[in-house]
Design brief:
There is one protein chain. The protein is about 25% helix and about 30% strand. With about 150 residues, it is α/β, with parallel strands linked by helices. The chain has one domain: Cytidine Deaminase, domain 2 (3-Layer(aba) Sandwich). The longest helix has 17 residues. It is globular. The N and C termini lie far apart (about 30 Å).
Length: about 150
C-alpha cells in the first residue's frame, strides 16, 4: 500500500503529515520502471500540467510516503527545496526518488531538468541521505541515474 500525504499545520501546532489517498501498490519502488508503473497507477501520466512528486523510502526500499511537492504549468514546475527537505524529514526517509511529468510525453530532459537534478543531489548531501534517482515520466521514462546524470 502506498500512501500519498500532504502537510498540514494548525494554529500553534507543528507541521504534520495527513494521508490524502492510498494506492494498492506493493512492489518495492527502486527501479525506474517500477516508479513509472506507480506514477501510471496514480494518474500522473494524464496530467496536463507538470507536477513534481517525491517518493520517500526506507533503507529497505519500502515507500514511507508519496508527496506532490510542486505544481507548475504545461512546460515547467518549480523545485521546492524547502518542501522536499521538510517531507523527507517528516517521513523519516533514508532515501528518496524525485519524479516529474512532461505533459508533452517527451521525456528528454531540458537544461532546467538537469540543473534541478543537481539541486536534488545537494539536498540529499545536506540531509545525509541518498537520492536514488530523478525520473521524468511521459510516454515512457527517463532516469537520470540510468543515464549517468545523477550526482
Amino acid at each position: 500500500m502506498v500512501k500519498k500525504y500532504r502537510t498540514e499545520k494548525g494554529r500553534g501546532k507543528p507541521i504534520r503529515l495527513v494521508c490524502e489517498a492510498e494506492y494498492d501498490y506493493s512492489d518495492v519502488v527502486r527501479s525506474p520502471k517500477k516508479v513509472f508503473n506507480l506514477m501510471k497507477k496514480i494518474g500522473v501520466l494524464k496530467d496536463t500540467e507538470e507536477r513534481m512528486y517525491l517518493i520517500c523510502l526506507s533503507k529497505a526500499g519500502e515507500v514511507k510516503g508519496l508527496f506532490e511537492v510542486s505544481h507548475g504549468t504545461v512546460s515547467s514546475t518549480p523545485l521546492n527545496e524547502r518542501g522536499i527537505a521538510q517531507r523527507i524529514l517528516l517521513s523519516d526517509a533514508a532515501e528518496f526518488i524525485a519524479v516529474h511529468n512532461h505533459p508533452s510525453g517527451n521525456t528528454e530532459p531540458s537544461l532546467n531538468d538537469i540543473m534541478c537534478s543537481r539541486r536534488l543531489q545537494k539536498i540529499a548531501d545536506i540531509l545525509g541521505i541518498e537520492c536514488i534517482d530523478n525520473i521524468i515520466v511521459g510516454d515512457g521514462y527517463f532516469s537520470f541515474c540510468e543515464n549517468g546524470l545523477l550526482g
